[in-house]
Design brief:
The N terminus is likely disordered. 66% of the residues lie in helices and 0% in strands. The longest helix has 37 residues. It has 128 residues and is an all-alpha fold.
Amino acid sequence: MKNKNQDKIKISFPQRLISPIKHFLETELLKSKRAKKNLKKEDPFSDEKRVLENSFEEDLDEQIGHFETEVKAKFLQKRIVQLRKSLTRIRLGKYGLCESCGKMIDTDRLAINPSATTCVKCEKEKEQ
């Protein structure tokens, strides 16, 4: 639950620090979008030359390949959403503040994961 005093406190990073972070996040977003697009090309189910009458081994390889691309695509989609959230928080002037509790996210956490939108404590609570 947010404390009334937290809404009054305006904490923000200086523009000289935010600018490279924003650039990094935008670059990662483009990379993730490209990777997701390229991943769809790797899906055995999207191959136009795919044969429907496969041996058991070939069918198994296709199924595993399809499953792997689906898992990777879901991971990339989550990453894209997280990067967009972080960029939105920069535009709103809320970058570095936990979206759950409103407290400042540890700078070490942001250095490791610039797209983090929650503090370690709230992230642990969310995982439980």
